[in-house]
Amino acid sequence: MRHRAHVLKVAAQAFLVALAIPVLARLDLDVLQRVLEPRRLGRASRPEDVRQLGTEYATIVDAVVRRARPVTRQSCLTRGITLYALLRRAGVEVSLCFGIDSEFEGHAAGHCWLVLDDQPFLEPSDPRSIFTGVATVSSAGVG
Question: Which helix (H) or strand (E) is 112 found in, with range?
Fold first, then answer.
């Protein structure tokens, strides 16, 4: 983990994004992509550095969201959008995938997750075994 000032800065950014999730989640995906895409990018370099940074940010985001309840909601949407915003700002070419499972107890269930190098990123298991991707937000736009 990096020094305390950096962790506090990332935690503050995570809190602000997580706090805005109810508004962000209502945006059209094209608008969401434009809002989340940073004007200036950091410099993420080697793949192992990117994975370490992702793990560090996920730990911070999970702690912030957990501690900020009930002001923030603990969900894949909060985690996914918040991590996407932070990692994109750090220069990581990550995507945010939205998926659906129509066989979930007779109702449609949704999930969102990060994708790095065409693979789920920072997920405990591969969500693609359950959820079918229906939209992706990335630096290139919405697909």
Answer: strand 107-116
